[in-house]
Amino acid sequence: MAIKHLDEYRDPKIAKQIAGQICKKSKNKVRIMEVCGTHTMSIFRNGIRSLLPDTIDLLSGPGCPVCVTAQEEIDTFIEVSRLENVIIASFGDLLKVPGAESSLMAERADGKDIRIVYSTFDALDLARKHPDKKIVFPGVGFETTAPVVAATILKARQENLDNFMVISAHKRVPPALDALMNIDGINIDGFLLPGHVSVIIGMNAYGPVFNKFKIPCVAAGFEPGDILYGILMLIEQIEENRPKLENAYPRAVTADGNPQAVKIMEQVFDITEANWRGIGQIHASGLAIKEEFAAFDARKRLDFTLPDSKEPKGCACGEILTGMKIPPECGLYKKRCTPVNPVGPCMVSSEGTCAAYYRYWDG
Length: 363
Known about the structure:
39% of the residues lie in helices and 16% in strands. By secondary structure, it is of the alpha/beta class. A hairpin with a 3-residue loop joins strand 11 (269-276) and strand 12 (280-289). Helix 2 runs parallel beside helix 12 (224-240) and helix 8 packs across helix 13. The longest helix has 17 residues, at 224-240. The radius of gyration is 21 Å and the shape is globular. The mean pLDDT is 94.
């Protein structure tokens, strides 16, 4: 079924037609991982699981930026917030993520200057308005947000705003897919690739992972028809035993992505090893601020000591992020861990798997 226009992807009749094709073609038991947290929320919100046959299990992967941010990175943000003359300028969903002993929300309640911003350029504006303060932006996100943070650093240098700094905890998606395929006990038959990230890096960026594992991969958008069409393409590949790297989101995703955004990202950041919650250290999966821009690197500019970080006791976020468990299998889910009092980040973020289950799953 060829779908060309956005309105068609939003048409419930067409979505049901695609679901019908999936039901006809899906014969064998398969496990498909949607890598993106926005996909996870859309799947739950639109009741997509109810349209699929019992042969298809959807797994939620490590596609929520806040959720995969390592515990020591959360603790770094908290420790920096305690420094004198520092204003933390953060996206809202990061504030409630618990650290080992506190959270940015708790620190704000205790009098620390922590402000919610809606873009990195809002943080830059704070630097202009408060030249006597150090404005620190926690850089959390994938290749989608990293170019914007890079552009903000370039703008800060242009304006000589040396009181603006970033703590880079950015992650790169393709190396994480490689790492997932190497974890014992994880059986994945196909990846529904993230739409937002793919817009930036392009389909070719997944080539090394696909060529190494020959696993079906399809990039998809976020409307119900988008997601179902991507699943249909994956099922066709799996049933016909012809793994491919395919694009079900051609109105936004190209082979090469957005070269200008990638160029800006590469200008400011070096590729480095990074620690992912639930997975651990992944080679070449992080982005560190280059030495050329050290003046805007809070890790290098500020003097602080990071305490030992420990994962919340009993929290299964790590297993949930790798598809080894679903939220109801966590002993804390809906008991000690709720959106009002979250224990782990998967319950905090608007893209978190636990938050999606809590809001939409009636099991």
